[in-house]
Structure formats: structure tokens, C-alpha cells
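Record 1 of the preview.
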Amino acid sequence: MNKALRPGIVLRNIAVLVLSLIWLAPTYLILVNAMQPVADAGNGPAWFPSGFAFFENLAAVWETSPFAETMLNSLMYAVGGAGLAVLFATISAFGVVVMPVKRPKVWFWLIYSGTLLPLQVFAFPLYRAAATEGIDLYDTKWILIIVYTALCIPFAFFVTRNFMVTLPPEVAQAAKLDGAGWWRMLFSIYLPLVRPAMVAGFVFQFIYIWNELFFGISLTISPENSPVMASVAALSGQGAVAQTPQIMAVSLVASLPAVAMFLIFQRYFTTGLTSNLG
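->
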């Protein structure tokens, strides 16, 4: 009997196909309703397009909202916050794994514990600190860069540290014999070796920051400082005049950078994560 036609394999393939269709259904609805002309938009979602008005829907929002400006803000937050977080996390991982520090497991859990608390716990203290007179970071770009960097360090540290422990200790021993100091060892040897893990951590954190909304609306209020997801959320808020097809079109465009980031760095992303499992 052909292996591909065995009942178990056939049922598995059918189950995968059904689950894939269920998973893709929301994406399909977004695409269809983003194309829908505003005049044809009914009370519920459309399953089949009655026309193609995607660019008209996008242009209507682009001209009446700060969507383009907030896209640039999110790009700066995602690149800057994720890049700084991965850099700091890699330096921390180097210190815990390679350098002769006492109780490395304690340091690991101390840094990684930043992922164990819900983010809402930090909202009020961060707001109070940002709004404190003399600091005046509330509703500035700096507050989101600082917050996003700090929030992304623990998971980036987890990824780079797990990759670094798979490297043979002879690498550091050989560098010491050649007279390399810690900084030379870090930047000349370990950073190139852990590049796949750094890219994987960067992609993870870029996507997180790009899609993040909670701190975007908690710590900023003006369009010149808000991220793009706050701008998209404002389109469907109280008093908003954007129609559903227009909101769908903008939401689709707003999600493209995160998707593109994953597709571009998919090779590094896969290598950086699977190498930890060896």
C-alpha cells in the first residue's frame, strides 16, 4: 500500500488542511473587506468582494489621519528598541556564559524574570516616572524607546544566552591564549558567532514592538510621538469617522512591515532558534 495513502496519513493531512483554512479565515476576511467599496459595506463582514476599492480606502485614511507619521515612529521604535535590546542582551549573555561570574544561574533568572510579570504591572509606575517634573518624558519618543528596550532585553537575553551555551568553551580559551581581552573577545569572536541568535531575537522583538499598543497609548498621546497601532486603534474609537473597509485597508498595510521582517530574515530566524536545541 502506498505510504501516502495510508488512512492515518490521509486523516492527518485533512486535519492540517482544515486547521490551515480556519487559521487563514481571518486574513481572508481582512483582505476582502479591505477591498470593499465603502458604499457597499453592510452591517457585517463581507465574504466576497463586490468591487476593488483598496487604494481608495487607504487614500481616504492617509489624507485625514497621521498614519504615515506614526508608521515612521513605529519603524524608529522597532528598529531602535529591538536593536538596543539585542545588543545589551548579548553583552549580558556573554558575561553570564563566558566570563567567570559567580552564580551565573542567579544572574540568568534575575534578567529573565522580566518576562514573568504581566506588562500591565509596569504601566502606572512608568507613567508616574515619565510624568515626574524634571524628567518630563511623557509623550516623547524617548520614553517609548527606553521602555521598549527594557521590555525586550529579557527574551533577547534568553535567545542569545541559549545559543551561546552551545558554543565550545575552547573558543574562549584559545582567545585568552592569544592575549585577547574580554571586549576584544566579545566583539571580534562572539558577536559574529552568535549573529543568527541576535537576528532571531531582533526579529522577535521588532514584531513585538511594531504590534504593541498598550504602552503606545499609555505613554504617548500626540500623533507626532504615537506608534502606528495607536493610530489604527484611534480610527475605530469613539468619534472616529473611518468606515470599516478603510480601517481594514489601513490595518493590512500596518501589518506588512512585521510580515516583511520575518520573511526577509527567515533563514537567520530559523537557524538562531533551532541551534539552541542541539
